[in-house]
Each structure stands twice: as C-alpha cells, then as structure tokens.
Amino acid sequence: MSVDKLKRTVLGLIAVSLFLVSGAVLAEFPLNLTEGVTPTSLKVYDLHMTILYIVTVIGIAVFAVMTWSIFHHRKSKGAVPAQFHHSTVAEITWTIIPILILVGMAIPATKTLIFMEQTGDSEMTLKVTGYQWKWKYDYMDEGVSFFSALAQEDNEARQLNSGIDPNTIDNYLKNVDNEIVLPVETKIRILTTAADVIHSWWVPDLGWKRDAIPGYINDNWTYIEKPGVYRGKCTELCGKDHGFMPIVVRAVPKAEYAAWIEEKKAEQVTAAAGSDREWTKEELLEKGDAVYAANCASCHMPTGEGIPGLFPALKGSAIVNGPANDMINLVLNGKNLMPAFKEQLSDADIAAALTHERNSWENTAADVIQPSDVKAAR
C-alpha cells in the first residue's frame, strides 16, 4: 500500500470515528431545550424557538451584507472608500430597527414570564427544602413529609475504591431513595427554601428552576400533563456533595396518587410508633447500617475514617466511645460543619445510626442506644 493511500485510509477511519462519537455525544447531550411536559415548559420552549428564529435571521442578514461588502468593495477591484463621517438617515435607521426588534421580542417574553408567576388557584402545595445534601418534601395539604437523598446503591458505587462499576447502574447518580409522587392534570404550587446554604431545585421537564434560599421562600407552579418519571438536580454549588443530590418526580394518575398518600401516612404512623418500643440490637444494627450509609458516610466515609482536616474519624473517636448522651446531643444539635439531625431523622433512625457507629470499626462502646433515649434527649 502506498504512503498516500495509507494516509487516506487513516484519515477516513478518523473521520468515521469522529462521526460516530459525535452522534453518540449528541444523543446523550441534545443541543436544544427540553420541550417538557407542562404548559410552562412548552411556552418557554416556544419562546426560545421564536427568539432563535429571529436572531438566526438577523445573523444571516448581517453576515450576508458583510460578506457582500467585503467581496465587492475590496481593493483589488479598485474600490475607493467614501469620505463621510455622519449620516442622519443611517443613525436613525440603526436605532429604530433594533428597538422594533427588541419590542417584538419583549412582548412574548413578558407574556411567558407573567404566565410563569401565576401561582393562584393551585389545587395542592408542595414545600421543598434544601439541605446539605438532600431534599425535604412537605405535602402541605396532606400532612406528609419525608427526606429524599441519593439512592444507597449509587452512593456506594461513587465511593473511592468501591469496586462497583457505575455502568451497571441505570441512571447512575440520578436515583433517590424516596421519589416525589405528584398527580397529573393538577395545578401544584411549589415552595422552595433551604435550611443551611443556597440550593437550587431544577427539573428540566417542568420548564423552570428556583433557588432555595435560607430564610426566604420562592414559589412557582406546575401542571404535569403526562404520567412518567422526570429527573432533575441541584444547580447551585452548595458544598462538597452538591453533585449528589438528585431529584426524581414520578407523575401518576390522581387515583394512584391518592393511594400513595395513604401509604405514606401509614408509614409515618409506623415510624412514630417505632420511637415508643424497645428494639433489639440486631434490629438497630441492620437499620443503622442503612441510615449511616445514607446520611453519614459521605463525610465520615463508609469505613468511619473521616476526611483528614475536614470531617473527623468515627473509628476510635472519643465522642463515639464516650457517654451515649453526649453523642446523642451532638447528632441532634450539630456542631461546626456537622448539621443538626433533629429535624432530618426520626428517633429510631438516630438510635440505629449511633448504635451502628458504636459497634463498628473496633469501637469499644459496643452498647445499644434506644429510640426512647433519643426522644428523651430532644
């Protein structure tokens, strides 16, 4: 094979590879906005396309005139530049035309913004509170409340040297332990706030996002038209695990939503009852392993060794191996970078996590903390 033919073959293979890779990239990362499944998202998409068409026409016209001028007024054709420094007609023209274009763009944009702010006449209210690094959801009209964090399987896989191949997990880092369930064809008011730092709640298919700011409540609304699962994430840099607090919304028919609400209410009753009974050590250790993985492992590491200079080790810790009440109060009220868990976890969850820690990593306390102990410390 000649050198030229070899070069052409290699270049051809490179071109084909680039084409295939670009196709895969475009399939994974679409170039246009998500159309979404709500009236808001569709209006935003239509506005986006309208503005895109306008600026595309402007761009083509401007560059066409520039190209024509450069070609026909080049020096090699003997073009002689005109000698003038002022034109009232030109100045008026290039002032009025942009104003008309901007007004034409502002009218549909303003209508869309007004539409997005119409939160009245909502049929239900969902309150979203951002925490480092999870979300809390309160169904204000139903008395249902729960936290939603990164799914345990994803959380384990993301750990350094976990030995788990992320490619084996569907929607890796986009799964949660508790999904939001919402009814379709229902106007839902969504309030967003935060308990510690600024977060931002975003589900692209809903067509908007809102900052969650401590001490302040933002509101918006949604009306989901199609059942399905819609994923989102926090879009405000909020600390170490900012990239690991996904959002999963499951939209279902109204009857299915009503059944789910009753199920969650029953779960809350069961959880509350768990604070009033004695647990066996085996029950606490089993539950504590899951609670620790979901709430503590990201800072203190699955091995309890912590992160030097940031988060202290629990392995061999004086507080872990010391009096139980001191440890309970620390977890309930927080300290320094450690958040207060009294609003985030139930008495049973805290008791289980502490029992797990005091019986793991060669810690010597090896005792049992009951939910009643946590309840008394509150």
Describe the structure.
With 378 residues, this protein is an alpha+beta fold. The chain folds into three domains: 39-116, Helix Hairpins (Orthogonal Bundle); 124-253, Immunoglobulin-like (Sandwich); 277-377, Orthogonal Bundle (Cytochrome Bc1 Complex, Chain D, domain 2). Helices cover 43% and strands 16% of the residues. It has ten helices and ten strands. The chain has helices spanning 3-28, 39-72, 88-116, 152-158, 254-273, 281-295, 297-300, 324-333, 347-358, 371-377; strands spanning 124-131, 134-139, 144-148, 180-183, 187-194, 199-203, 208-212, 218-223, 228-234, 246-252. The strands form two sheets. Strands 3-2-1-5-8 form a five-stranded mixed beta sheet. A five-stranded mixed beta sheet has the order 4-10-9-6-7, covered by helices on one side. A hairpin with a 2-residue loop joins strand 1 and strand 2. Helix 2 (39-72) packs antiparallel against helix 3 (88-116), helix 6 (281-295) crosses helix 9 and helix 9 (347-358) packs across helix 10 (371-377). The chain is elongated. It starts with a helix and ends with a helix. Mean pLDDT is 87; it is low at 18-27.
Low-confidence stretches: 18-27
Q: State the end-to-end distance.
A: 82 Å
Specify the CATH class of the largest domain. Mainly Beta
Number of helices: 10
Structural class category: alpha+beta
State the main characteristics.
378 residues; alpha+beta; Cytochrome Bc1 Complex, Chain D, domain 2; 3 domains; five-stranded mixed β-sheet; 10 strands; 43% helix
Précis, in short:
The strands form two sheets. This protein has a five-stranded mixed sheet with strand order 3-2-1-5-8. Strands 4-10-9-6-7 form a five-stranded mixed sheet, covered by helices on one side.
